[in-house]
Amino acid sequence: MVGETESMTILTSANGYVIVPEERTEIPRGGTVEVHLLPGFSYLADRLFD
């Protein structure tokens, strides 16, 4: 996120976020990422999502 209003609006309705290195330009469909859950959503930590 660069701090633009649209990006902040998306984050306010999110359960978590991923950190993508600046040099990465894409994440392939089906790729594995590490999701950082926001406080209050830790009960989701053991579930897998498609």
Radius of gyration: 12 Å
Report the end-to-end length measured between terminal Cα atoms: 23 Å
Continuous helix count: 1
Uncertain parts: none
Number of domains: 1
Mean pLDDT: 74
The fraction of residues in strands falls at 5-15%
Query: In percent, how helical is the residue content?
Result: 10-25%
**Count of DSSP E strands?**
2
Descriptive notes:
By secondary structure, the protein is an alpha+beta fold. It has one domain (5-44). Helix content is 16%, strand content 8%. The protein contains one helix and two strands, in the order H-E-E. The longest helix is centred in the first third of the chain and has 8 residues, at 5-12. It is globular and about 25 Å long.
List keywords for this structure.
two-stranded antiparallel sheet; 2 strands; single chain; globular; 1 helix; 50 residues
Strand and helix map with partners:
Layout: H1 5-12, E1 16-17, E2 36-37
Short description:
The chain has one helix at 5-12; strands spanning 16-17, 36-37.
